[in-house]
Amino acid sequence: MFEKALLNHPITHVTINTVPIPVYFSLMIYIIFLLSSTILILLFVFFRGYKLLYSIKKVILLSLLISSIAYLVYSEPIWYNWVITDWEAYGGLDTKEKLHKMDYPLYDFALKIKELIPANSSLIIFSSDEYFQIRLEYFLLPFKKKEPPDFIISVVDKESLFDASTGLFKREEKTFTNMELFFIYAEHAWVLRRK
Fold this sequence. Notes:
The chain is an alpha+beta fold and 195 residues long. Helices cover 51% and strands 17% of the residues. The radius of gyration is 26 Å and the shape is elongated.
C-alpha cells in the first residue's frame, strides 16, 4: 500500500492543484476573443466611422473583457465544485489530520523521522520525484540541510545505491562513506545514519 501511494501522487482531484482546465476551453476563449475582435472592428470602423488604429485599441480591451466574462461564466461552477469537494474532504479536520489524509504515508514517514532523529541533526533528502523531496523537506523543518549529513533520507529514489557491507552511499556525483541503515519505513522509504 505504501509503495502504491508513493508512486502515485497523493493529490488527486481534491485540491486546487488538480482542477482541470480543458484544452477545448482555452481554444474556446481564443475563438471568442478573435470573433469579438473581428465583429467589434467591423462595428467601429464601418458603422461608427473610427480610424482603424484607434479602433484596435478599444477592440482589444473590449475583446479581453468579453473573453474574461466568458471564462468567469465557465469556471465559476468548477471553482465552487472544488470548494465543496475540499470542504467535504477536509472540513472539521485539524492541520495534522488534513496532512495525514492528503499526504499519507509521506506525512507519517516524516513524523517517524522527527521522532527518531535528534533535532540538531543535519540531513539530506534524495528522491527521484521532486514533489516528494520538496514535501518531505517541508515536513521536516527545521532540520538543517548540509553536507556531510548526519542522516540521509531516501524516498522513492531510483538513483540511490547503498552498500551495507562497506557503508557506501552513492547517488549520481554524490558519495558518502561510513553510513549505516538507521531504519526502513517501507521498501521505497528508508533512512541512513552516519556511523
